[in-house]
Prior knowledge:
The chain is an alpha/beta fold. It has two domains: 43 residues; 200 residues, Rossmann fold (3-Layer(aba) Sandwich). The chain has seven helices and 13 strands. The strands form three sheets. The chain has a six-stranded mixed beta sheet with strand order 8-7-9-10-11-12, with helices on both faces. The mean pLDDT is 93.
Amino acid sequence: MKIGDLVTRNSHDNDIIFTIVDIEQDNYYLKGINVRLYADSPLSDLTKYDNTTKDKDEEAFLSRIKEVSPVHRDEYFYLPGKIVHIDGDKDYLNNCLKYYEQMNVAALGINENEVGLDQKIYDILKKHHPNILVITGHDAYYKKLGPIDDLKAYKNSLHFVKAIEVARQYEPSQDRLIIIAGACQSNYEALIKAGANFASSPKRINIHALDPAIIATTISLSDRNKDIDVKKIIESTKYGEQGIGGLITKGTMYIGYPR
């Protein structure tokens, strides 16, 4: 097998499709195609994925999330909320930007490492003035490093928390700036306490690469005068309440007349 090949892991019931990003002797470094996950594996545990075979579950999910828009072509016109999406992974960011484009939502993508983001985020917000801020990338919980509530036991949760806290210094109101934060296995409770409206991951599971973008898009396309259906919006993500949770909040879209 070589760098760029698609593979699955036998020890995990071949549940996630990865691409090989690096090889060191018998250690293969992997990145999830659709799930925000890095992993490594010996060659003996890998099975080459037949990319001519359609992933029916993924296709059904992608088809479903294209139907989240409440906007109808009628006599009104619509001004969705503006999104700034900061992502530590360029590939996942590009996938999210394609989704925003498909949904006709204005979104600016910024590829920025999770480490040190708190030093840059204030200037980003001051420059672009978004209604919705997405902060994501990669994360992981390492049980051997500490209990589930210890931020030191996570790959990037502490960096997410610091970035959220600075964003809340810029805009304290959770109605004026909606923050969606976290990645795979992030410390959900810490991110919510820091000021996020939505965060991952309540059950410390992996999340789909598009999950933060689904939340952001739905809020962007929801009436700013009405509360969103928080259960419905979370259920629209790949893994539902196990992967993302959040607060009842209002949408960010202005509706005008006549069109």
